[in-house]
Every structure is written in structure tokens, then in C-alpha cells.
Amino acid sequence: MGSFASQFMTPDGEEIAQHTHPSKPNWITVHAITAELSIAETERLWLRFQQLGCNRDGIITEELAGQTSVSSDAFSRNILKKFTLSQTKNITFENFLRGLKWCEIADLNDKLRGIFRLLNNGNPVPKTTFVKILERVYTNPNDKKDVQRVSDIVYKHMDKKNKAMMTEDQFVTGIRNVVPDDTLEDLLLFEVLPTYMKERLHSQLPEFKSEGPTPDPGGRQIPSEAALRQVAEKIHRRDWLRTANKLGLTNEVVSEIKANASDSKQQAYTMLRRWKEQEGAHAYTSVLERALKDSGMTEAAYALML
């Protein structure tokens, strides 16, 4: 994650916790609003934060961080450091929320760059260091013999100049060239609230309860422009190209959209508009909902149905 932490970290002295406390009834609500998460998501992460060992003030101090169950693992320790305030060395619940939200909404390239920056503090990774990392990953003694072979394959593919050194760009480009986007999306998928929980919560909403057969909320309705803008707002920071693929838009159309739209939000909205125009009278809300769910944009799918 490295320098990406600056995108979500709240600096020392500006934390929302200055205006609330775990003992107050607004603790969850205030943090949910600040981090732009749902109450259910915030409650779940508050439970996880408590399990990590925060104190009564809702803070994991440097001392407490050293006592957590994950502190014995170097990789996990490095992740925790990305949530740590530079001056106090504390981890606040707010930054914990913001960091995990980043893990959910970041696009593939940013996630890969974030992973790389955990390997050697953002510096190029020597082959010898990569071997040590693999030795930690391959914990089964029977697999240890594969460490050198795997390392040789990785560096042969990514280190084209044969310098026994892997840079961030080589890491990202190498993986994107070898691993299909769909597979990579699945591998790097992180959900603050798992899909099955979202579906369970969604089914409990009064407007979708019925004594008879379960209704199709979207049905054969055509999504409004306002609905498309709402969806674009929720997906533009993620890999909306996957949604475009699920909606049947060609690579040529996507390339045209990216070339003509100024920013990611406008690109996502334009993509949805193109799909709606392409499908005409058959641009059903239920079709868009399914495409969003299939591309991992579950939250956007539920927002579309409300």
C-alpha cells in the first residue's frame, strides 16, 4: 500500500474520534458517515478492530499493536504499519475503516502496486529477497523445494534485463500480462461486508418483503439517468471495465469512452449510457443489476434497486 496510504489516512489531530468515544451511542454512526460506509459494514469492522486489541478509547497503540495476534507475521505487521499515524504511532478506528475501504474500491493496478510496496517497503525487490518471501509463503516442508524454481520462473518473466531485480512496474505489468482480469479480480476481491451478508440484509428491507412470491425489484423497468449516475458514483473508483464487459460492450467502445471522457466517473457514466442506448427498450434494470453483481459491484447493484 505504501504511499497509497496518503489517499485514505486522516492526519494526526484531525481524527473524528476527537468528537466521539466508543462509550457514546454515535460512535458507529459518526464513523460510518466519515468513512462513507454503511452501518452494517462499520459495525462489522468495529468488531474486527476490537478483536485486534484496541483500548477503551478505540485506539490500537504502538504497544498494543505489538501484542496483536498478527504481529508475529512480518507481512501482517507491514500491513498494520500502513494504518499507523506518523507522530503518535497509533492506529485509529477511522483510519482502519478508510484503509479497508480502499482495499475494497481500489482498481487492479493500485491493488497490485499496493501489494508490491509491502514486499520491500516499495523498493525494487532483489531475487534473494523474493526467495525469502516465498520461503515464508511455502510453509509446508514438501513445498520448500519449489521455492527456487518458482523464483526463477517469476524473474525470468518479469526481469527481462536479467538483473535479478524486480521493479514495481515490472511486477504490475508482468501480472497483468499473465493473469486474466477476471481471475485477478477474483484473487484481489475484498469485501468489507461479504456478498451473502449484503444479500441477507437486503432481503430484510421492508420494501422487498412480501407474503407472496419474491418480487423482482428491477423487473423490466428502464433505469433512469439519475440511477445511472448513482451507479457510476459507486463503481468509477473500481474496475468498471469488468462491468462493461458483463454488459456486452466491446473493447472498441470502451476505448472510445476512455479516450473521450475526462475522468473515471464520467467514463463509468458514459459506459452505462452507451449500454442503455445500445439495448434500447431492453435495457432493463434487472440486467444491469445482474451485471453489477457478476462484476463484484454488489453495493452498486443494491443501490440501483432501492
Task: Explain what you see.
The protein is an all-alpha fold and 306 residues long. It has three domains: 27-105, EF-hand (Recoverin, domain 1, Orthogonal Bundle); 108-188, EF-hand (Recoverin, domain 1, Orthogonal Bundle), CATH 1.10.238.10; 225-303, Death Domain, Fas (Orthogonal Bundle), CATH 1.10.533. It has helices spanning 27-35, 39-52, 62-65, 74-81, 93-105, 108-119, 127-137, 147-158, 168-178, 181-188, 195-203, 225-235, 240-246, 251-260, 264-279, 285-294, 298-305, and strands at residues 59-60, 91-92, 125-126, 165-166. Helix 14 packs across helix 15 (264-279). The two termini are 34 Å apart. Residues 207-218 have low confidence and may be disordered.
Summarize the structure.
This protein is mainly alpha-helical and 306 residues long. It has helices spanning 27-35, 39-52, 62-65, 74-81, 93-105, 108-119, 127-137, 147-158, 168-178, 181-188, 195-203, 225-235, 240-246, 251-260, 264-279, 285-294, 298-305, and strands at residues 59-60, 91-92, 125-126, 165-166. It is 57% helix and 3% strand.
By CATH reckoning, the class of the largest domain would read Mainly Alpha
Contiguous runs where pLDDT drops below 50 for at least 5 residues: 207-218
Strand content bin: under 5%
CATH level 4 superfamily of the largest domain: EF-hand
Number of helices: 17
Strand order of the largest sheet: 1-2
CATH topology of the largest domain: Recoverin, domain 1
Name given to the CATH architecture of the largest domain: Orthogonal Bundle
Morphology call: globular
The total count of strands amounts to: 4
Overall mean pLDDT stands at 82
Percentage of residues assigned to helices: 55-70%
Largest sheet: 2 strands, antiparallel
Q: What structural class results from the helix and strand content? A: mainly alpha
Rg over C-alpha atoms, rounded to the nearest angstrom: 22 Å
End-to-end CA span: 34 Å
